[in-house]
Amino acid sequence: MDILQNLVHMTGQRDHLRLEFSVLSTLLQLPHVTQVRALEIHPFEGQPWVRPRTWLQDGQLVNTDIDFLHDPQRKPLSTLPTLNAGMLRKQERIAITTADGLHILWLPVWMREQARVCIEITQSAEFSTHDLDILLAIFQVYQNYQSLLDYSERDALTGLLNRKTFDEHLHRFSNSTKAENMTEIQPWLAVIDIDHFKQVNDRYGHLFGDEVLILVANLLRSNFGSQHRVFRFGGEEFVILLQPMSLSAVSEALEHFRQAVQDYEFPQIGKITVSLGFSGAHMRSPSPTELLSQADEALYYAKENGRNRVCHYETLQALGVLKKQEQITHDDVELF
Ligand SMILES: Nc1nc2c(ncn2[C@@H]2O[C@H](COP(=O)(O)OP(=O)(O)OP(=O)(O)O)[C@@H](O)[C@H]2O)c(=O)[nH]1
Prior knowledge:
single chain, Alpha-Beta Plaits, Diguanylate_Cyclase, GGDEF_dom, diguanylate cyclase, EC 2.7.7.65
């Protein structure tokens, strides 16, 4: 009955992290389970890394508040060779018995051919068929619910994160930037807008316009998808929340993307360009709303000064070329 109540609680969650807490506490109700953890898997410098994100400590489930790149607990996935090999084979479950007699079951959460999270369950007794039946049923409910949540967070056309989730990500992002005490290395927010996109629709029709949006989203994903957060923000506008890096690194990454779009041959249409504006989220940063409007001001400047370029808000400000633009609003939607 406790398990049923837990399942009811689990499916009442509207947030990935709360859902994770909920599944772990449900699993902890099972008689032989001694430890549960949610492991986060992240690509970094060309290989997958892993770290515990949620675990049981002194009888309480705790969740890390450190971002992945700064977490001292992260390590290459290859240091867990059985898990690593199982993940490479895209296995649905991976089990080992450790030298000290513990039985560990790993259940990667596969979504769109990728697993970013893996549930780890440890027992002192071997997993019986009965244990497995119950564990896997709970996990299945969790996984189904996780993909429903994921679906509701994505833009239907491009598969990028949608605007609805942006507030929450920006809030987390701005909280994590407060913890940063660095000046040179900082997180960034970039706004990207396709140039003269109306002409694409007018000349070739909406279906071709939609295809351009999908292809630009694919380029964004391949350039920024693994470490940063990419959103489709409105019609032909995208936003990226970029992990901490230096000004020269972020300029290079954004410039690389701008060039990639310029070089891309869009079927039937040929060449398309994008304009980008970005701003740093350092400690002195104003509110998230202002951060967004700073990046927007830089984008506006890029549009006014030839398009197909990347503009940095703080540099433009230091040069004194930005006029205060009260008229910059995000289309017709109120964000905050
Ligand atoms: N095909 C398609 N078009 C869209 C979608 N959402 C918005 N648009 C179109 O995007 C165009 C945006 O045009 P504008 O904001 O006027 O600007 P622009 O032509 O891109 O020009 P600049 O931004 O000034 O370079 C409009 O024609 C919208 O109809 C969509 O989901 N699909």
